[in-house]
Every structure is written in C-alpha cells, then in structure tokens.
Amino acid sequence: MRFAPGYRRFALPAFVGAAVAAVVFPPLGAALLAVGAFVLWFFRDPERSPPDEPGVVAPADGRVSVIRVEDGRVRVGVFMNVTDVHVNRAPVSGSVRTVTHRPGAHKPAFSKDSDRNERVDIELDTDAGDHEVSLIAGAFARRIHSYVAPGDELVRGQKLGHIDFGSRADVLLPPEYGSDDVVVEKGESVRAGETVLARRN
C-alpha cells in the first residue's frame, strides 16, 4: 500500500518506542505499536480513477458539509473524518494559477468557525472557468501539505496535497455554476477524484 508523504515522521517514533517498550513494559509497547499502525492506516493513499462522466469531482473523501452561495459563486465543502483518506485531488483539469497559504485558527473543521482556519487556497485556470480548491486545517491538523506550484498542469483526479489529522476541502465553483448544478446533498458521502459534485445543466 502507498502512503502520503510525511508518514514516517509520526509512524517511526511510535514503532521505535514500541520496540523499546516491549522489553521493559509490554503493555506500553502494544499501545505504541497500535499507534504506529493507526498512523500508517491514516496516511494510506489508495488509487482513484475519475469517472467517465463529466463534472467537478470531490477534492476529498468524506461527507459534504457545506453547500452555499457566496459572492455569486457556489462553494461545496467536504469534511474529512479521522477515518477518511486525507489525500486531496484536483476537482477539474487545469493550470495552477496561484497557491496561497493563509494562517488562521484551528477550530473543528465541521464548524462554521472553520472558515477562519489556517488554509491553502489553490486557484485553477480551466476551460470551464476559474475554480478554487481550499485545503482547510481542523482542530488537530497542524500541517497542510501542497504538492503543486503555480504553472503546474493538473488532470482531473490528480493528487494535489494532503492534510495531517482531520480537516476540510472546499471547491469554489466558477460564477457560471448555480446551485442547481450541484448534484450532491449535505451529509452525502463522497470519494476524492471519483464522486461528481457538480456539472453544468
């Protein structure tokens, strides 16, 4: 199985500690071994294949937590629970225009206050208009890892980053999209790079 970058920083100390503790205090060794296994599972990076049908695909695994119109554009947000894959993917094909890190708070990613959380905004220039992907840190997330830079060409479903331990990923659709173009509902479970969130009617 493949893992997202950075997993060694969390998994290796747990496994090393488990090996040492197994000699002096086996229960602690077992607990640290379980922590290391959980880290590997959390950082899993499974293969994903975009669907044949057109449309904007989900940037993250999880449940749709935000569907709203702001300044004439529709935003669709996906909350990633601790059990979800946390590798994020491009919702559309296009060219990366900007990658902007914005410092902020670390409120729970499912709350309205999370709009002021630390985030990385990735603007994509596409044939269907400008799209923006926001990787938003959560209460326990302290690092957002972007894999892309301005000028990169992305295809729909390509990996563009991940967030450590709990978070949210949003897509801000072009002005040409309306609420009727969103084909998912709040609370619906989606898969990064595979589930279509919106398509032009």
Automatic annotation (TrEMBL):
It is a peripheral membrane protein. It catalyses: archaetidylserine + H(+) = archaetidylethanolamine + CO2. Pfam families: PS_Dcarbxylase (PF02666). The modification Pyruvic acid (Ser) is found at residue 167. InterPro entries: PS_Dcarbxylase, PSD-A. Keywords: Cell membrane, Decarboxylase, Lipid biosynthesis, Lipid metabolism, Lyase, Membrane, Phospholipid biosynthesis, Phospholipid metabolism, Pyruvate, Transmembrane, Transmembrane helix, Zymogen. Its EC number is 4.1.1.-. One of its GO terms (biological process) is phospholipid biosynthetic process. It comes from the Archaea. GO terms for cellular component: plasma membrane. Its cofactor is pyruvate. Belongs to the phosphatidylserine decarboxylase family. PSD-A subfamily. Heterodimer of a large membrane-associated beta subunit and a small pyruvoyl-containing alpha subunit. HAMAP family: PS_decarb_PSD_A. This is Putative archaetidylserine decarboxylase proenzyme.
